[in-house]
Design goal:
- There is one protein chain.
- With 287 residues, this protein is mainly beta.
- The chain has 2 domains: 143 residues, Jelly Rolls (Sandwich), CATH 2.60.120; 111 residues.
- Helix content is 11%, strand content 34%.
- The strands form 5 sheets. It has a 5-stranded antiparallel sheet with strand order 4-16-6-14-15. It has a 4-stranded antiparallel sheet with strand order 10-11-7-13.
- Strand 1 and strand 2 form a beta hairpin.
- The longest helix has 14 residues.
């Protein structure tokens, strides 16, 4: 008979059976099914592959193997140059800060000003966002209106978290990727008069990509027919740095999949699916 998932030979009593919690150092198996909409949002919305598992402060996850299969039932994807990446989420999100200045503080003629946001991977970049300002708005009042306008813009808010106080406008990338030297916030008058033209913002925090585990070439998503046959990427390889003897997994970091290119995938269809199977174990950090 079976008790608690353990096969117990007939004749053994309840006292003969001991149950234990699964040792996290034993291989863990997690299957993640990515929908078409998730696949087409992996640039700005990576997906955690560890399910409900959590890596503690003094632990790290070691990946043994990753299996990826694509079922492109509705059609192939576009953006063939954008590979998928399985990585640790230990990167740093880039932060850009602009400061609002007026030619003569507190002296402003009402109209529209323009705030232009540039970022690799952001849809419609560079994006010029119009901000209405009132007569004699202070620099802090203008900054508040700029933050509201950027938050309301679908392209900017999909890519950044908008924050700041007083005269600061702060954009924090939602995904940690390698530092983008082109990222910028520029402000200038349009029909308003009195906004000081500021062409460049401050790169407050440089972006740092998480440690890479596996690269999946985009041809695995785009070079397939619509037969519904299980298709494997033409190249899904463990990164050399990951399998090197000197590799040290980052503590307290979980594992995710994301689009490492500069844009989201197009094409596909709602019946498409990608199946990612992760084999890993959690070890204590003894460094």
């Amino acid at each position: 008979m079976a008790r608690g998932g353990i096969i117990v030979p007939e004749g053994l009593g309840e006292a003969s059976v001991s149950t234990y919690e699964l040792d996290p150092r034993i291989l863990q198996y997690v299957r993640t099914d990515l929908t078409d909409s998730q696949i087409k949002a992996l640039r700005n919305t990576p997906v955690n592959l560890m399910g409900q598992a959590a890596v503690g402060t003094n632990e790290f996850a070691i990946v043994e193997q990753v299996f990826v299969s694509f079922f492109n039932l509705a059609g192939p994807y576009t953006e063939s140059a954008d590979n998928l990446l399985i990585e640790y989420d230990n990167g740093t999100r880039q932060v850009e800060t602009a400061t609002i200045h007026e030619t003569v503080p507190g002296t402003l003629i009402a109209g529209n000003m323009t705030c232009t946001v540039t970022a690799a991977g952001m849809v419609n970049s560079p994006k010029a966002v119009t901000v209405a300002v009132a007569t004699n708005d202070t620099e802090a009042q203008v900054a508040t209106k700029v933050r509201a306008a950027l938050t309301a813009d679908a392209d900017v808010s999909a890519f950044f978290t908008v924050s700041g106080a007083t005269t600061a406008v702060i954009l924090t990338a939602k995904v940690a990727v390698a530092n983008d030297g082109t990222m910028n916030i520029a402000t200038a008058d349009d029909t308003s008069v009195g906004i000081a033209t500021t062409a460049s913002s401050a790169n407050t925090t440089a972006g740092v990509v998480g440690k890479a585990i596996m690269t999946i070439e985009a041809t695995g998503l785009v070079d397939v027919d619509n037969s519904g046959v299980n298709t494997i990427p033409s190249a899904a390889v463990m990164n050399p740095s990951y399998i090197a003897a000197t590799f040290v997994p980052p503590p307290a970091s979980e594992i995710r999949i994301r689009n490492s290119g500069d844009g989201e995938y197009g094409g596909g269809g709602e019946t498409n699916i990608a199946v990612v199977t992760l084999l890993y174990r959690i070890e204590p950090d003894i460094s």
